[in-house]
Amino acid sequence: MTLLLESTNHLYWHVGRSLGREADTSSTLRSAVQMKTDNTALKKVVIHKAGSYDRLRFETQPLPKMGPDDVLVSVRAIGVNYADVVVRMGLYQSAKDYVGWPITPGFEFAGEVEAVGTAVTGHRVGDRVFGVTRFGGYATHIAVPQTQLFPIPSGMSFEQAAGFPAVFLTAYFALHELAHPRSGDTLLIHSAAGGVGGSLVQLGKAAGCRVVGVVGSSHKVKVAEQMGADVVIDKSVDDLWSSAALHAPDGYDVIADANGVATLKQSYNHLRPAGRLVVYGFHTMMPKKGGRPNWFKLAWDYLRTPRFNPLDMTNENKNVMAFNLSYLFEHNDMLQRAMGDMVGWLKDGRIAPPPTTSYPFEQVAQAHQDIESGQTTGKLVLIP
Ligand SMILES: NC(=O)c1ccc[n+]([C@@H]2O[C@H](COP(=O)([O-])OP(=O)(O)OC[C@H]3O[C@@H](n4cnc5c(N)ncnc54)[C@H](OP(=O)(O)O)[C@@H]3O)[C@@H](O)[C@H]2O)c1
């Protein structure tokens, strides 16, 4: 069915779905009927207030209202990000700024186009697409502006596509918008078997760099190697910073760090002159089990987080950069450039989708528990 948005802003189903991708509004049956078919409802995860896994409640709601520029997607796979658990705990600032409570977490999804608004030109009913959204992704259906959707490259599954955009866009921003590594540079990538970390390793290799990956558990070494790391430091076995110095005696050109307090100061210390430290997360402040923040640890870690002095940075020729992608959704030019580049690299085999582990939608709490544990590799994906 092709969804038409009438000037009255009422939603009408246009009975033409049986014509599939070739359906054309001029030739399809014009007897629009109000949206009262089997597909009037969606299922989504709704969090009404901050807390542990029991806050992840399923609710049924009417399908979202669509603007003329929107596309309704029937979701087949949803990417889980570490940030989603921070949202659930009530600690994610942009979730407070843009949504508040209740909130449906989720930054990324893949599925099939179910309906398009009247001004949509780039997507048609039945297309396989993946996309990004500023929250709201944990749902069986989602409506987003057409610019936030991209065709799934051939050969890529819904699971792989759903796990691709958030981590790769983060990695792309860190490297290509901020750090600008040159071919031959040496990069140190923390959490190199994880979602963003694995993507940073892949993008670093694709840029011709030498990549030293760091992982926190031995079972992750192979995954980081598969992502392309030239060297992997297993900090559960080896001393992180003496190993890091051994592999880059003159220091690193770029270090990407989402650990926060546990490594930031040493990451800075291990930059070479003109080196760039890109900060994009603080996960070592967070609990690995239980699902609730330890407020004392949070406060203590906040106080212990290093402050970088611009005078020292100038004299030492070292740079510290930081960003949060969820505040950058309005930068459509950047989104299109990044996705255009990366889909091209996917197609020519320079990068690959991250390895995925799937969970039935109903096991969302288990997925949160697992990503919080710090033991997962690649991407976790929910299947609605
Ligand atoms: N700034 C942005 O725009 C942006 C966007 C996306 C993600 N992020 C951040 O990027 C980081 C990675 O996100 P992701 O979704 O790709 O997750 P992930 O890396 O797949 O999983 C988190 C990893 O962090 C490490 N870790 C260290 N201490 C931890 C702790 N106390 N609790 C849990 N994990 C811990 C673990 O790896 P090791 O033990 O191997 O190090 C763990 O596997 C997160 O901090 C997230 O908030 C930032």
Main attributes?
6-stranded parallel beta sheet; disordered N terminus; 18 strands; 12 helices; binds NADP nicotinamide-adenine-dinucleotide phosphate; 384 residues; alpha/beta; 7-stranded mixed beta sheet
Are any ligands bound, and if so which?
Answer: NADP nicotinamide-adenine-dinucleotide phosphate
User: What class would the helix/strand composition place it in?
Assistant: alpha/beta
Kindly report the average pLDDT value. Answer: 91
Largest sheet: 7 strands, mixed
Q: From N to C, what is the helix and strand string? A: EEEEEEHHEEEEHHEHEHEHEHEHHEHEHE
Q: How many beta strands in the DSSP annotation?
A: 18
The proportion of residues in beta strands is: 25-35%
Rough outline: globular
Radius of gyration: 22 Å
Report on the structure:
Helix 4 crosses helix 5 and helix 4 (165-179) crosses helix 11. The longest helix has 16 residues, at 332-347. The chain is of the alpha/beta class. Strands 6, 7, 8, 9, 10, 17 and 18 form a seven-stranded mixed beta sheet that branches. Helix content is 28%, strand content 26%. The two termini are 21 Å apart. It has helices spanning 82-88, 93-98, 158-162, 165-179, 195-206, 221-227, 240-247, 264-269, 295-304, 310-316, 332-347, 364-373, and strands spanning 2-5, 11-14, 33-34, 41-46, 57-62, 70-80, 108-116, 128-132, 141-145, 149-151, 186-189, 210-215, 231-234, 252-257, 271-279, 318-322, 356-360, 379-383. It contains twelve helices and 18 strands. Strand 1 and strand 2 form a beta hairpin. It binds NADP nicotinamide-adenine-dinucleotide phosphate. NADP nicotinamide-adenine-dinucleotide phosphate is lined by residues 81-83, 166-167, 170, 190-191, 193-197, 215-216, 220, 258-259, 280-281, 283-284, 286, 288, 323-325, 371-372, 374, 376.
